């Protein structure tokens, strides 16, 4: 079989402090520059992979190949947020594609808001937003997409968290409950394409987007706010095997990248945002600030619509075995 060369599209994007984000003079919030929503395919998925660390490029190559091969994926867009990475390094790391087309979009800065920009290249009614260290089983992702088709107004994900009101401190906190959840993470999330426009272009969210820029955190929480306000539903947690390479509870090493080198799994984990000691505290502060800015608390609890509990779905390497990351007995 002759392998077709990868089509790489390089686009420089710039976020603005005005309600609409801009890129090289092109307004992402100009509906005239985007496909007519009525023409978006309902039976396919566009995958948006956010990448930053060059240490993860071998893993990104593997994940991109996987997503591109899936029959229900229409396109894969790699959103690269490290402006220091040489173009030739990225080009060499990316695979060729015999399946869904793969495009590379470079950002000039590290903005987390950029992962939710509306894009003319998205031609499907649903998108999967994911990190470059999350490796889903294809059957699990297909199951998640089928759940989105049944709950199109909800966010669908594999990693659940919750907001809660702490009676002692009399404030909102970010936490985990075993029996309910109100937030799914952008480690791997499926959502309506139109929510990108809501997130990026609603003038009421300008202050909230600025908080995301300032803290370099909480863009996923803000999208959960958006979906809850727009869709009026809580998220849907689906069960399935998803390898989480970036979880700090992993141990051991990554398999060979194909070049003969062995990647250090500790380095993959080190670049992750969630290993920061103040991560959970910061995210609680985001919930409180979003509530204050918007004047509402739209987050809604879900109670096992697809699974019985909101347990960890990521797989970690412990003692040479792949187990659920929260499994303390292996």
UniProtKB/TrEMBL annotation:
Organism expressing this protein natively: Dioscorea alata (Purple yam)
Keywords linked to the UniProt accession: Glycosyltransferase, Transferase
Protein name listed in UniProt: Glucuronyl-galactosyl-proteoglycan 4-alpha-N-acetylglucosaminyltransferase protein
Protein origin, superkingdom: Eukaryota
EC number in record: 2.4.1.223
């Amino acid at each position: 079989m002759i392998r077709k060369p990868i089509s790489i599209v390089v686009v420089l994007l710039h976020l603005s402090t005005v309600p609409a984000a801009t890129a090289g003079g092109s307004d992402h919030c100009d509906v005239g520059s985007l496909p007519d929503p009525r023409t978006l395919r309902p039976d396919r998925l566009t995958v948006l992979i956010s990448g930053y660390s060059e240490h993860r490029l071998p893993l990104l190559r593997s994940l991109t190949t996987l997503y591109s091969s899936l029959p229900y994926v229409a396109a894969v867009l790699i959103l690269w947020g490290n402006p220091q990475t040489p173009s030739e390094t990225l080009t060499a790391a990316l695979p060729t594609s015999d399946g869904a087309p793969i495009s590379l979009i470079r950002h000039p800065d590290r903005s987390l808001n950029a992962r939710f920009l509306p894009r003319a290249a998205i031609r499907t009614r649903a998108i999967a937003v994911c990190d470059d260290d999350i490796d889903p089983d294809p059957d699990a992702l297909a199951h998640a997409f089928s759940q989105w088709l049944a709950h199109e107004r909800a966010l669908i994900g594999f990693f659940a968290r919750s907001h809660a009101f702490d009676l002692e401190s009399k404030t909102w906190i970010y936490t985990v409950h075993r029996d309910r959840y109100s937030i799914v993470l952008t480690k791997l999330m499926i959502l309506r394409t139109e929510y990108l426009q809501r997130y990026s272009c609603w003038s009421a969210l300008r202050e909230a987007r600025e908080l995301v820029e300032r803290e370099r955190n909480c863009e996923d929480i803000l999208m959960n706010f958006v979906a809850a306000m727009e869709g009026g539903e809580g998220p849907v947690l689906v069960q399935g095997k998803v390898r989480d390479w970036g979880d700090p509870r992993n141990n051991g090493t990554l398999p060979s990248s194909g070049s003969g080198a062995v990647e250090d799994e500790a380095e993959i984990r080190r670049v992750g945002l969630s290993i920061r000691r103040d991560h959970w505290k910061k995210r609680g502060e985001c919930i409180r600030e979003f509530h204050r800015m918007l004047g509402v608390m739209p987050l809604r609890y879900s109670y096992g619509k697809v699974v019985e509990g909101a347990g960890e779905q990521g797989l970690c390497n412990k003692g040479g075995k792949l187990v659920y990351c929260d499994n303390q007995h292996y």
